[in-house]
Amino acid sequence: MALFGAMTVFTKGTIAVIFCARRTDADDSGYADAADRMEKLAALQSGYRGIDHARNADGSGITISYWATDDDAKAWRDNPEHAAIRETGRGKWYSSYSLHVARVERSYDWEK
Amino acid sequence: MALFGAMTVFTKGTIAVIFCARRTDADDSGYADAADRMEKLAALQSGYRGIDHARNADGSGITISYWATDDDAKAWRDNPEHAAIRETGRGKWYSSYSLHVARVERSYDWEK
């Protein structure tokens, strides 16, 4: 999985979909495969701007996908394969999650 | 450090400050102490709504702090102790980072 695929400056209005999840212990390899597949699938969607991802040793993690418009973010939400994987996630991989859809106001980056 | 301190539903307009950073190898314990101190200090600021944090094995990580208003987020940015630690971070701990200030449009959570 390409961690920190985005790590860039976004234009105002870019949509950030913030997904914070706690994992169960179940089916770790199935989860990793699905995460990898979802990242590849998202990158094919219209308006895709990147993904940043980080995961703690306890399995909890944050995935942020970035989209040109809110309609693009909704189209990704409604992608049938993504929706099916989400159902699998609720059944097997996640114990809880929160999801925030937010609109970028300001964006910066810095490099040593 | 209290990982996933937020993990909740936010009202529309809540400000999410998304900080994605790559680490150097330097001064790991100093970094951990500073991160812990910053989380405690943020929680004392007006308008603080929580922090979610995840960190990969390679040291890259995402920290999202949530604020009632953009002025609250800016006051945290301008907190003198926070500003000083940020300078230390640029000197020692970070090799690169991106920072996005975004306004929450929709927010959900789910629990098994």
General description of the model:
The structure is a homodimer of 112-residue chains. Chain A has one domain (15-103): Alpha-Beta Plaits. In chain A, α1 (28-43) runs antiparallel to α3. Chain A has a four-stranded antiparallel sheet with strand order 2-3-1-4. Chain A contains three helices and four strands. Helix content of chain A is 35%, strand content 38%. Chains A and B meet through β1, β2, β3 and β4 of A and β1, β2, β3 and β4 of B. β4 (94-111) of chain A pairs antiparallel with β4 of chain B.
Measured by residues with Cβ under 8 Å of the partner chain's Cβ, the largest interface is: A-B, 46 and 46 residues
What general outline of chain A do the C-alpha atoms trace? globular
User: Which CATH class of chain A applies here?
Assistant: Alpha Beta
User: What integer value in Å does the Rg of chain A equal?
Assistant: 14 Å
What multimeric state do the chains show? homodimer
Estimate what percentage of residues of chain A fall within beta strands: 35-45%
| SSE run of chain A | EHEEHHE
* Integer tally of domains of chain A: 1
Low-confidence stretches of chain A: none
Distance between the ends of chain A: 25 Å
- The appropriate CATH architecture of chain A is 2-Layer Sandwich
Notable traits:
homodimer; 112 residues; alpha+beta; Alpha-Beta Plaits; four-stranded antiparallel β-sheet; 3 helices; 4 strands; globular; monooxygenase activity (chains A, B); Dimeric_a/b-barrel (chains A, B); Jasmonate_Hydroxylase-like (chains A, B); monooxygenase (chains A, B); oxidoreductase (chains A, B)
